[in-house]
């Protein structure tokens, strides 16, 4: 049996296209995407932008689908006595201050932050191809992300592009 077949995959990581999402994550420890977006069951998310998979695989702490993005919801939730509601309100306010529009519905993922012990880190992985490594989302095993020097290393052993 080949070594790669004998290797146990530690866990799969969702890697999202993240032009706006990468700086948003670093600001809020959250990821916001369209409501109803399908992800395989995973525990971690990583970000791809500027031809690089950034060296962070944050743990997904909570997933909230179909959230109304509105100034009223942000204000109401931001003033809640419940910490999770305050976090959601602050995330909605940040989303509206960025690329999202009043009245849109979204899925919100709360994530561990950079430097949190539950966040896995690895060297940034450059992509040298002409087209983007992902324009939506892909999946890669955490152990391969940790060992890869370029996205070619991931593509050779790819778990595949996700059609969604």
User: What is the molecular shape?
Assistant: elongated
Total number of beta strands: 8
Helix-strand sequence: HEHEEEHHEEEEHH
Largest sheet: 8 strands, mixed
Backbone structural class: alpha+beta
Assembly state (oligomeric) = single chain
Residues in β-strands, percent: 25-35%
Mean pLDDT: 89
Cα gyration radius (Å) = 17 Å
In total, how many domains does the architecture comprise? Answer: 1
Instruction: Extract low-pLDDT stretches.
Output: 1-7, 159-164
In CATH terms, what is the fold-level topology? Answer: Archaeosine Trna-guanine Transglycosylase, Chain: A, domain 4
CATH top level is: Mainly Beta
User: What is the CATH architecture term?
Assistant: Roll
Q: Could you characterize the architecture of this molecule?
A:
The two termini are 33 Å apart. This protein is of the alpha+beta class and 164 residues long. 29% of the residues are buried. The longest helix is centred in the middle third of the chain and has 15 residues, at 83-97. The radius of gyration is 17 Å and the shape is elongated. Strands 1, 2, 3, 4, 5, 6, 7 and 8 form an 8-stranded mixed β-sheet that branches. Mean pLDDT is 89; it is low at 1-7 and 159-164. The protein has 6 helices and 8 strands, in the order αβαβββααββββαα. The chain has one domain: Archaeosine Trna-guanine Transglycosylase, Chain: A, domain 4, CATH 2.30.130. 29% of the residues lie in helices and 30% in strands.
């Amino acid at each position: 049996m080949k070594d790669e077949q004998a290797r146990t995959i530690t866990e799969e990581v969702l890697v999202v296209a993240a032009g706006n999402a990468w700086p948003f994550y670093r600001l809020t420890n959250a990821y916001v995407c369209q409501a109803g977006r399908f992800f395989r069951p995973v525990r971690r998310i990583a970000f791809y932008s500027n031809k690089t998979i950034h060296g962070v695989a944050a743990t997904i702490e909570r997933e909230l689908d179909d959230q109304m993005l509105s100034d009223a919801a942000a204000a109401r939730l931001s003033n809640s006595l419940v910490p999770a509601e305050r976090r959601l309100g602050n995330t909605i306010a940040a989303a509206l201050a960025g690329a999202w529009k009043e009245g849109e519905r979204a899925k919100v993922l709360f994530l561990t932050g950079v430097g949190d012990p539950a966040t896995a880190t690895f060297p940034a992985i450059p992509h040298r191809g002409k087209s983007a490594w992902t324009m939506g989302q892909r999946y890669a095993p955490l152990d391969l992300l940790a060992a890869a020097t370029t996205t070619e290393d991931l593509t050779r052993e790819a778990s595949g592009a996700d059609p969604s």
